[in-house]
C-alpha cells in the first residue's frame, strides 16, 4: 500500500482524511497551512474564539505566525508565543487560566511537540477546572498512562495542530508535562484525546533547524524499529512499521541532502503517521531505546537525540533474542539506492551487516550525536542514576531482552559512553 497518496483530494488540491482507522484525528495536506486552517476553522469547527499557541522562534524569525493570525482575523482572541521544552506545569496553568477566561472554543498550535503536549493538557485542565499544581497532580496518569479515568471530565475544546517537526505527538492522545517543583515529567492520558485535525505543510517545516527535524525523524524511525523488533509485534503492526520506515529512511536522507526537497519532507510526515500507529493503534510495546531515553529527558537530552544515541546499542544488546526480526529491518535500509551507497561507502556489506551497524552509519550520515558524551552526559554518578531510573520505566521491562538489573542497563550505556 502507498501511504503517500489518497484519492480524497478536494477543491484546490487538498487531501482531507482520517489519519487512522479510528477516524481520529483527521489530516489535511495539499494547501498552504494558513489557508487550510482558515477553511477548517469555519467549515469543520465553526469556531469563533480561537486561542493560538505559536512557536516563539517562528514568530521571531519568520512571517508565518503573522500569516496565520491574518487568516484567522477577528476570530483570534489571543496568541501565546512559545512554551518551554518539556512543557512546564506553570505555563500550562497560565494558559489554562487565560484561555478559560476568554471562553476559548478552539485551540491551534503552530510549532513543535511541546506546544502540542501543552494544548492537550490545557484542554483537559479547562474541562476539569484545574487552577493549581495540586489540581494538575490529580489529572495525570501516574505510571500507567493507558488506564481509564472515568472520574475526569473529557476535554471539550478541540485542537488543531500544525506541526513543524517529526515528533508525532499530534497523533497521540497522550500529553507530557513537567512539574516545576520536582522536575518530573508526567503523562496525561485518558481522557485526553489529542488534536482533532493535523495540518501538514512541508514548506512550513523548512524553517525548522535541520538538527531538530532530523533528530525527530530518527525518533520516528525508533518507533518503527522497536515495533518491528518487539516480540509482541503482529502482522498488522509490522505492515505499518515497514511502511513508515520505507518513507522515513530515504526521506530523511534526502532532507539532509537538500533542505528544499518538499517531497521528501512530505514523505517523512506521512512516515510519522505510520510510526505512531505502531504504538497507539496496534499497542506494540516499545523497548529499551524508549525506556532508557525517557530518563535522559530530565538530564536535558531531547527525545530525538536519545534515539540517535541508544537505538543502535539496544539492537546490539537484543541480537540474541530477535536477530531474525532485526534482519528484516536491515533490508529496508538497503532498498534505497542512495542510502545503500552510503552504507557501502562506510564499509558495510549487505550480506552480513547488523542492524546495530546499519543504524550507526545511517545516524552518523545525518550528522546526529552518537554518544552520551556528545550530549554532555558523563561521569559514573550520572550513569548509575540513569541505570537505576531506567529500571522503573515499563518499556525497559518490555524490551525483547528484558532489563531486570542495573547491570543490564549499564551494559547498554557502556556501548554509548563515548
From TrEMBL:
<dbReference type="GO" id="GO:0004022">
    <property type="term" value="F:alcohol dehydrogenase (NAD+) activity"/>
</dbReference>
<feature type="domain" description="Fe-containing alcohol dehydrogenase-like C-terminal">
    <location>
        <begin position="215"/>
        <end position="414"/>
    </location>
</feature>
<feature type="domain" description="Alcohol dehydrogenase iron-type/glycerol dehydrogenase GldA">
    <location>
        <begin position="42"/>
        <end position="202"/>
    </location>
</feature>
<dbReference type="Pfam" id="PF00465">
    <property type="entry name" value="Fe-ADH"/>
</dbReference>
<dbReference type="InterPro" id="IPR056798">
    <property type="entry name" value="ADH_Fe_C"/>
</dbReference>
<dbReference type="InterPro" id="IPR039697">
    <property type="entry name" value="Alcohol_dehydrogenase_Fe"/>
</dbReference>
<keyword id="KW-0560">Oxidoreductase</keyword>
<dbReference type="GO" id="GO:0005739">
    <property type="term" value="C:mitochondrion"/>
</dbReference>
<dbReference type="GO" id="GO:0046872">
    <property type="term" value="F:metal ion binding"/>
</dbReference>
<dbReference type="InterPro" id="IPR001670">
    <property type="entry name" value="ADH_Fe/GldA"/>
</dbReference>
<protein>
    <submittedName>
        <fullName>Dehydrogenase FUM7</fullName>
    </submittedName>
</protein>
<dbReference type="Pfam" id="PF25137">
    <property type="entry name" value="ADH_Fe_C"/>
</dbReference>
Amino acid at each position: 500500500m502507498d501511504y503517500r497518496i489518497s484519492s480524497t483530494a478536494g477543491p484546490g488540491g487538498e487531501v482531507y482524511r482520517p489519519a487512522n482507522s479510528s477516524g481520529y484525528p483527521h489530516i489535511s495536506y495539499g494547501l498552504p497551512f494558513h489557508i487550510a486552517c482558515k477553511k477548517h476553522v469555519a467549515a469543520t469547527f465553526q469556531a469563533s474564539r480561537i486561542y493560538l499557541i505559536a512557536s516563539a522562534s517562528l514568530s521571531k524569525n519568520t512571517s508565518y505566525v503573522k500569516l496565520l493570525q491574518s487568516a484567522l482575523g477577528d476570530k483570534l482572541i489571543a496568541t501565546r508565543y512559545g512554551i518551554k521544552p518539556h512543557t512546564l506545569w506553570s505555563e500550562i496553568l497560565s494558559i489554562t487560566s487565560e484561555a478559560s477566561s476568554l471562553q476559548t472554543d478552539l485551540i491551534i498550535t503552530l510549532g513543535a511537540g511541546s506546544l502540542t503536549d501543552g494544548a492537550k493538557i490545557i484542554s483537559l485542565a479547562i474541562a476539569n477546572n484545574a487552577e493549581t499544581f495540586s489540581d494538575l497532580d490529580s489529572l495525570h496518569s501516574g505510571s500507567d498512562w493507558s488506564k481509564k479515568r472515568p472520574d475526569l471530565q473529557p476535554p471539550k475544546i478541540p485542537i488543531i495542530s500544525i506541526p513543524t517537526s517529526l515528533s508525532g505527538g499530534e497523533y497521540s492522545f497522550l500529553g507530557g508535562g513537567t512539574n516545576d517543583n520536582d522536575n518530573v515529567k508526567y503523562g496525561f492520558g485518558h481522557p485526553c484525546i489529542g488534536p482533532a485535525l493535523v495540518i501538514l505543510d512541508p514548506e512550513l517545516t523548512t524553517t525548522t533547524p535541520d538538527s531538530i527535524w532530523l533528530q525527530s525523524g530518527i525518533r520516528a524511525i525508533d518507533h518503527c524499529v522497536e515495533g518491528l523488533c518487539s516480540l509482541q509485534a503482529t502482522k498488522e503492526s509490522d505492515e505499518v512499521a515497514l511502511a513508515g520506515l520505507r518513507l522515513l529512511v530515504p526521506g530523511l536522507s534526502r532532507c539532509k541532502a537538500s533542505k528544499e526537497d518538499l517531497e521528501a519532507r512530505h514523505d517523512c510526515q506521512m512516515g510519522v503517521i505510520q510510526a505512531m500507529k505502531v504504538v497507539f493503534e496496534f499497542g506494540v510495546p516499545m523497548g529499551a531505546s524508549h525506556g532508557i531515553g525517557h530518563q535522559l529527558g530530565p538530564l536535558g537530552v531531547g527525545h530525538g537525540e536519545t534515539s540517535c544515541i541508544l537505538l543502535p546499542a539496544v539492537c546490539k544488546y537484543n541480537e540474541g533474542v530477535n536477530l531474525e526480526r532485526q534482519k528484516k529491518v536491515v533490508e529496508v535500509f538497503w532498498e534505497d539506492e542512495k542510502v545503500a551507497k552510503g552504507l557501502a561507502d562506510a564499509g558495510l556489506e549487505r550480506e552480513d551487516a547488523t542492524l546495530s551497524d546499519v543504524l550507526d552509519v545511517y545516524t552518523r550520515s545525518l550528522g546526529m550525536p552518537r554518544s552520551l558524551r556528545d550530549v554532555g552526559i558523563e561521569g559514573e554518578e550520572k550513569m548509575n542514576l540513569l541505570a537505576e531510573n531506567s529500571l522503573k520505566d515499563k518499556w525497559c521491562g518490555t524490551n525483547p531482552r528484558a532489563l531486570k538489573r542495573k547491570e543490564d542497563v549499564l551494559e547498554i550505556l557502556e556501548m554509548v559512553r563515548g
